[in-house]
From TrEMBL:
InterPro entries, alphabetized: Methyltranfer_dom (IPR025714), METTL24 (IPR026913), SAM-dependent_MTases_sf (IPR029063)
Keyword Signal: yes
Protein's UniProt name: Probable methyltransferase-like protein 24
Keyword Signal found: yes
Domain of life, per lineage: Eukaryota
N-terminal signal peptide: 1-33
Alphabetized Pfam families for the sequence: Methyltransf_22 (PF13383)
Domain Methyltransferase: 41-184
Organism annotation: Hyalella azteca
This protein's UniProt keywords: Signal
């Protein structure tokens, strides 16, 4: 819950202060505990406010980067969404049959082609090419989940500069960001997030990892953060 005050100067010099309370309903979907830790992997925040909440039976979810952890995708399919899942590092699990989850072994990047990931070549596509592939270029995407281990910078660079109109069709973006020790990379990422906010995406949730940290400028900071943005144009 977020609150702020709005003070107005009325006739005769009388001030009236209004307390405005904005309530955002957020629910966590998915989650499996990582072996040997209490950290829950796969969990994502989903906003259930009117007009931006996924509608069971007609909602569309795009999910990038599962790493064989499918609890979020299964939860959204059970909720009533059609789920399109993408990850270039894994094969399709047999357990997904009949779950309403459509899988392709592709990654999300800034260009369509071959990229290197931990010394292995992977196939990546731009966001527009992914939408074309699944025939959703003109469709509203209820939830875009992105957990692509640093490639989110390339994704943002592409859509914010070349395909910004595609963002207008997305209701919610749930993303794991990785602001690692490179100050240049951190500055670039925060600049991209500011651009996203300028396009009417408001941040409604930000959760740091509880188990993975490093030292930056003599401070202990998280290696990654789970972010949720909502497109205010749908409200």
């Amino acid at each position: 819950m977020t609150s702020f005050t709005n003070t107005r100067l009325l006739r005769g010099g009388i001030r009236r202060t209004l307390l405005v309370i904005l309530v955002t309903l957020v629910e966590m979907f998915g989650a499996q505990p990582n072996e040997g830790t209490t950290f829950l992997d796969g969990v994502k925040a989903v906003c259930l406010d009117d007009k931006v909440s996924p509608t069971p039976g007609s909602c569309i979810v795009l999910s990038f980067g599962m790493g064989n952890e499918w609890s979020f995708e299964e939860a959204m399919a059970e909720y009533g969404c059609k789920v399109y899942a993408f990850d270039p590092t894994i094969r399709q699990p047999d357990s997904l049959s009949g779950h309403g989850i459509h899988f392709r072994p592709l990654g999300l990047g800034g260009v369509t082609g071959v990229a290197s990931f931990h010394g292995t070549e992977i196939q990546v596509c731009t966001y527009r090419d992914i939408l074309k592939l699944i025939d959703l270029e003109k469709s509203v995407i209820d939830y875009l989940r992105i957990d692509i281990e640093g490639f989110e910078v390339d994704f943002f660079h592409n859509v914010l500069n070349d395909d910004v109109e595609l963002l207008a069709n997305i209701k919610q973006i749930g993303m794991e960001i990785h602001p690692l020790a490179s100050e240049t990379l951190r500055d670039l990422m925060w600049s991209q997030i500011r651009q996203l906010r300028s396009l009417h995406f408001s941040q409604v949730s930000s959760l740091p990892s509880m188990g993975w940290t490093y030292t930056f400028e003599n401070k202990t900071v998280s290696q990654f953060y789970e972010m949720l943005w909502v497109n205010e144009k749908f409200r």
